[in-house]
Design a protein that fits this description.
With about 120 residues, the chain is an all-beta fold. The protein is built from no helices and eleven strands.
């Protein structure tokens, strides 16, 4: 059974960098046709896809966040990481990591989500 677990600070100050890690168990992040994604949900709003890293390590980002977002991975630890720079209170959200199956484009496994609040 694949499991994803987000970790990182729950409080970040404005202008700082938000950094979250997703640890994957029960499957490898290098398995073919899988994409490892970050998705967030601000309070009272819908889900927002932020970006993804593929099984080969290539990345893709939401155009609206591309200038501030970086996704990387550590294959030795089976983890992938989100960095979001220059955060503002508008970046306050529940952040999810998820697996997207490239064969059908379903998000088939999700972490439980982690609340990140941007506040001084």
């Amino acid at each position: 059974q694949v499991q994803l677990q987000e970790s990182g600070p729950g409080l970040v100050k404005p202008s700082q960098t938000l950094s979250l890690t997703c640890t994957v168990s029960g499957g490898s992040i290098t398995t073919n046709t899988l994409y490892w994604t970050w998705i967030r949900q601000p309070p009272g709003k819908g889900l927002e896809w932020m970006g993804a890293i593929s099984d080969t390590g290539s990345t893709d980002y939401s155009p609206s966040l591309k200038s501030r977002t970086s996704i990387s991975r550590d294959t030795s630890k089976n983890q992938f990481t989100l960095q979001l720079t220059s955060v503002t209170p508008e970046d306050t959200a529940v952040y999810f990591c998820a697996r997207e199956d490239g064969s059908n484009w379903f998000f088939d496994y999700w972490g439980q989500g982690t609340q990140v609040t941007v506040s001084s």
